[in-house]
Amino acid sequence: MPSELEELVGFIANPNPQVRQLAVQNLVPFSLEQPQIFKADDLQPIKHLKLLVRDHPKIAEHVLEILVNLSGDQEILENLATDDKFLDVILLHITSPKEPNANLLAMLLANLAKWDSLKTIIQRKQPPPETLGSDELVLNQLMDLFVKGADGSFNKDADYDYLAYMFADLAKHAEIREHFVRRQDYDEAVPLTKIRVFTEHKSDVRRKGVASTIKNVAFDVPSHPAFLAEDEINILPYILLPIMGNEAYDEDEMMDMLPDLQLLPPDKQRDPDPKIVQTHVETLLLLTSSKGGRDLMREVKVYPIIRETHLRVNDEGVQEACERLVQVLMRDEEDEAAGARAEVEDDDMRIVEV
């Protein structure tokens, strides 16, 4: 005889919308506490939940909360991430300017990106909303949603912050990294240049996801010249500003720094999250894999910035990353070729999940 909880799961598929809404509303906490109840009968409850994403927005809201929670289970994650028809629905809904549950859809996509097969999203196409100004590539649409929707101007109910986590996980894959540094025909912009401005955004989620995306894309070593060139991606100011505070530098040091880093206001604060600071320092370390990168960082006085970061951020991960970067920047020229390669290939510098 089924338990009361199992009976409640059965009401997910009830033809009465009021019953469905009451069922999914009451099941949200159990999606964290007892995820196994949703795996009965060969994941039949999951199949029902996937259909209800298109239900009334109030029902769909609770359904998405449940799916976000359940996607931490590998069996359920695989079921969701490999269902092309379900992905079509998710991607169509999130790009609608009137979708009230867009942020929950962004959270779900961020979780689904942990399944490797989602990298095929780079091949997906769908008609773009006219107000988005994007092309048919879904990945470009999501990037434009993330950028243009940040202030609520595209969809009053969404900021799309969690798409940053999706980008970071997708950037584990070489083909996605290459896409993020390739100029797109429809707007003549490099995707990475669209998100670099968010390294100092007010949202912790957005800053963390963007920092991790930049770091993961930086594993594409052939793109480093574009990363560093002022007239291309020009990533250095956007990495260095978040790790700088209001400390004073010697005039000689300051005048050689990048223009954006000079004469910062006295109330300038470095990113309060040490994990984000560590991520930026690790990105700098990746960018020292070429002699050009090392020479540029020495020329624009990155060392004093790292010195002050090491001194002022009391975090083991940040201090270790700073020490490793300093070792590269201070290394004699004859040791650089072997040393920089060892830094990049060190086990501690593997791409990590957000």
Automatic annotation (TrEMBL):
Residues in Protein HGH1 C-terminal domain copies: 283-336
InterPro entries (UniProt xref): ARM-like, ARM-type_fold, Hgh1, Protein_HGH1_C, Protein_HGH1_N
Pfam families in UniProt: DUF383, DUF384
Residue stretches making up the Protein HGH1 N-terminal domain: 93-277
UniProt family annotation: Belongs to the HGH1 family.
Protein name, entry field: Protein HGH1 homolog
Organism, scientific name: Coniochaeta hoffmannii
